[in-house]
Amino acid sequence: MDFKFTFRQTRYRESMMVVRNSNETSTRKVQLLDIDDIPEGKAKRVEIEGLRIAVTRINEDIYAVGDMCTHANYALSDGPIDTEELTIECWKHGAQFCLKTGEAISLPATRPITAYQLETTQTSLFIHLPEKGSA
Q: Which of 8-22, 25-39, 72-86, 114-128 is predicted least confidently?
């Protein structure tokens, strides 16, 4: 279940947006975790509704992407984050993915990961997931 959203990052401030994925499927907002629990420059694995998501904060930007490498199904949250290039790397084979778009930018991966739409309040991070029954 891969969804591409039109916006992929959020500033570390309160934000409100109307969100639709590229297929105009409705989404719902679900609380993911507290802002203070998001590591700076490292990935944190979060599981919600059967999805494994890697979340990271780089300065004031927060990113959430699918946590499984599309090459060999290893957890991306166990690998390094490049805070300048805004990528997450699979620790096993070195595939890199863009944190903003989910695009696979280096081999051996060729398929993208999901980049999730986020919203923040002063204390909480919310993720947009597809409406139940619409996927």
A: 8-22
